[in-house]
Amino acid sequence: MKHLYLLLILFTSLANAEEIGGQYLKQAEAGDSRAQYYLAETYYSSGDDKQAEMWAEKAAKGGDVDAMALLSQIKFKHGDLAQAKGLAQQATVADSSPGAVMLARLLVNTRAGKTDYPQALSLLHKVAENTEDDAAVDARLLLGLIYANGVEVAQDDVQAAQWFKQSSTLSRTGYAEYWAGKVFQQGEAGFITPNKQKALYWLNLSCSEGFDTGCEEFDALSGE
């Protein structure tokens, strides 16, 4: 279930509620912690945070460490950064790669406390190396954002573009660049300040990579 880091920030993909139940519900209700995690993740993607949190809590209690990482994402989304950080740390210690990406995200956000970019970069590089792990998509994208943003590390658009391209290689051509543009367009409190020029730059790159939605968003933002 590959998912981009940005989907954990502001945007979610839609899923059919019946498909959620049909695919995972029976096993989840029978106590399968991994099925509970997948059900929670799909509810989260569909925008139903209440159901997502309920099933993620069940999965985490059953020993699924990735469910703990998902709980961290949910807490982050709703502004409880202290609890989000604690959950991400626990998940990381338990060797959850989504937990490591989530912890890195919190370590570069000033709202979550003192930042630690060296630790965040170390965590992300480790996850990014494993191309068989879905979390590598998110790790590579966050690395790109860090270098594109240029806070506490030197801004390096060349290195950022390389990380975005590597992320898109594991998902869809131009996709990471598109989400980078959207994040710079809207910003993320404590991490990225909205910047129209940077948004246009990355959306244009997404478009040049052949991602049609990147072209549409570039044209829309250019006209504002």
From TrEMBL:
Keywords: Signal
Signal peptide, first to last residue: 1-17
Domain of life: Bacteria
SMART domains for this protein: SEL1
InterPro entries tied to this protein: Sel1-like, Sel1_AlgK, TPR-like_helical_dom_sf
UniProt entry tagged with the keyword Chloroplast: no
Record-linked PANTHER family: ERAD-ASSOCIATED E3 UBIQUITIN-PROTEIN LIGASE COMPONENT HRD3, SEL-1-LIKE PROTEIN
Protein's name in the database: Sel1 repeat family protein
Organism: Leclercia barmai
